[in-house]
Amino acid sequence: MIQDERKNYPFDLVSVFSDVPYKGNPVYVVHLNSAIGDGLKAELARHLRLSEVTFIENVADASGELREYRVDVYNPQGRMEFAGHPLLGTAASIGRRYGVSRGVMNTGTRLVPFEYWPQQSGLCRIEVPPFRRRSYMRSADLADVVDAPMQSRCFPIYDVGPRHVLVELANKDAVEHVSVDYEALRSFKDIALHCFAWDGDGVENRMFSPAYGVYEDAGTGSVVAPFLHEARLYQPDRTSLLIRQGTFIGSECRMRATWQVDEEKYLIEGQTVKCGEGWLCL
Fold first, then answer.
1. Is 52 a known active-site residue?
2. Is the pLDDT of residue 179 over 80?
3. Catalytic one among 5, 43, 52, 264?
């Protein structure tokens, strides 16, 4: 008789930035009560074919107390220091499974406080670690892979862990019909391309990133605070911004960024909904 020494681990499938099941941006959240290797985590992230998968370690003693959770975030290309929608989905999974409303997620390099309100359509909020803005040195080259009317051919890049290049287009119609040479975009390492336009009091955005293993992302949480920061360069009194993404691929995400003046920090928030659960045999 062959003994199978693998273990079963529970997981949740959570849609983020929407309260409608199977809309928004999905993430698998795997709850580990024992350690598994980084190689297996990376392999699983590639196999599941979502933009990210998260792994929560040492949850066997989880309780209702404020505590720190070790969370590893993986995309198909490897481990990430910070990611918005996966960590919001992870916070929602922690909240639902363990009955907690607050805590801190430790990604290994970043501490990310979170809050969770189940009665408000699974609303989650996380604090954004410090980030930096500069001019992207390959702006002219990147402009050549985007077929759409642009406001400028000099783009800002924000380093939030993932690196986001913001390409402002003429209007929402240009965002809808933008054409990106995805094969040419493969030569741009460690960036996500965001083609966006200001739309009323918010932003309409599309994101493309072969560097992060994503053809087009439905909702990129880590870019939400940079968009608000960009808006505040011209409107210093602005303290919040709504970003819409995924509209043109059938998975609209509504993501909000907030600037807390008194504590000088950015927060991102969105609604969440659990779409499924099960067990992984690893």
1. yes
2. yes
3. 52
